Amino acid sequence: QNEGESFGNAKTVRNDNSSRFGKYIKLYFNKASGVLVGAQMEHYLLEKSRIGTQNEGERGYHVFYEMLKGMTPEQKEKYGGLTKAEDFPNLNKGQMFERVLNGKVVADDAKNFTALCNAFDDANISKESQDLIFRCLSAVLWLTKVEYTNDESTGKAKVSNPETLKKAA
After folding, report:
1. Which of 11, 20, 52, 78 is most buried, most CB within 10 Å of its CB?
2. Which residues have CB under 8 Å from 112's CB, separation 6+?
3. Mean pLDDT, the chain cut into blocks of 10 residues (169 residues total)
């Protein structure tokens, strides 16, 4: 597995390692002749919604599960006291905490996290940049645990667990 798979692939019901990337090709034609005169290709990430929820039997992007399985207790503490995938609303909707296909575990998230970190090192991504990446990923996880209530005095929503919001910040 490579870092692209960690960040761009997810488990779906039909495919354990489904790419969530897409390409959009815009073609340009000469209005007078109808002849193709150019094209523009855009790459984009599909299913931003997959970060927030999954269908039963599916998982979000691999990197979240890999991170939670592969980080040391010290690393988890550094990023706000991360725990396990089951504890995060954006990861537990599909009830699929291992990459299982046809009843068989097909990938080891902890090993894949080590491989991801090694790939970052091999690509000369600095430890500081790696730290920023993991801080961002952790913030996404913590933001899914922020809860809101109605502020009776103003009628507006307010954060009911500000300590969780601080972890995201």
Report:
1. 11
2. 1, 6, 62, 66, 70
3. 54 53 74 87 62 75 92 97 93 81 86 93 93 95 93 92 93
Cα–Cα–Cα angle for 152, 144, 132, rounded to 5 degrees: 125
Q: Which amino acid is at 103?
A: G
Q: Which are the contacts of 47, defined by CB distance < 8 A and separation ≥ 6?
A: 10, 20
C-alpha–C-alpha distance, residues 38 and 29, integer Å: 7
H helix or E strand, kind and range, residue 104: strand 104-107
The pLDDT value given to residue 85: 93
Sequence-separated (6 or more) residues with CB below 8 Å from residue 59: 10, 11, 65, 91, 94, 96, 97, 99
DSSP states of 6-73:
HHHEE--SS-TTEE-EEEEEEEEE-TTT--EEEEEEEEEE--GGGGT---TT--SBHHHHHHHHHS-H
- Written as six digits, the tokens of 78 are 């550094």
For residues 80 and 43, the answer to whether their CB atoms sit within 8 Å is no
**Residue 137 to residue 53: CA distance in whole angstroms:** 15
Task: Give pTM, 2 decimals.
Answer: 0.74
CA angle centred on 60, ends 97 and 72, rounded to 5°: 55
